[in-house]
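Chapter summary example.
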Amino acid sequence: MIEELLPGTVVVVEARDLDGTGYLPLLPEEEPLVARAVAKRRREFTVVRSCARRAMEKLGLPPQPVLTGDRGAPRWPDGLAGSMTHCDGYCAAALVSLTDLASLGIDAEPDGPLPDGVLGSVALPAEVERLGRLAEHRPGIHWDRLLFSAKESVYKAWFPLTGLWLDFSEADIEIAVDPGDPRRGTLRATLLVPGPTVDGRRLTHFDGHWNARQGLVATAVTVPRG
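The structure predicted for these 226 residues follows.
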């Protein structure tokens, strides 16, 4: 799902059978974060961190706890950028050296419609209009859910660079469909507030990719160096 949306420098580990065995247990430092969580939340929390530690191993790093910082964002080992996502039946973690990317964000969602009333709270009028055109010409994908996922990925890439909240209304996302594969494509998020400065340049937009596979929609946003 998500691995195909990211450059080869990014290590991605995904999990589907969240009720199975073979996942790495939580480290002692992580246990307090879900001490009072319901079973479903604890399971997803455990599996996605197992994915993150497997990704660390692939990068040649010793397993380390993934704790949370401001606004619940994961705190990664020095020198790494990363992102995690989980939804019903799917977890993934993506890690990359900060020498290769400045930041990244990933998100996966069930390929179903957003609950009533949610689209109006997350989408700009121009985005709603574009979603309507996509739904008319490509009715097999829940574009409202895909837009929501894209907003989540944009925020996950934004926050480590700024330490600031980014409202749904502060990024205007355009979704494009791959002419050769109608279930994947690209996205561009135009920032409607001053963007972060990366390697001396002020960012005005974030770029990414999306796909819709196996009952999920997934998005990934990367912020290159230089």
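To summarize the output: Residues 159 and 165 are 7 Å apart (CA to CA).
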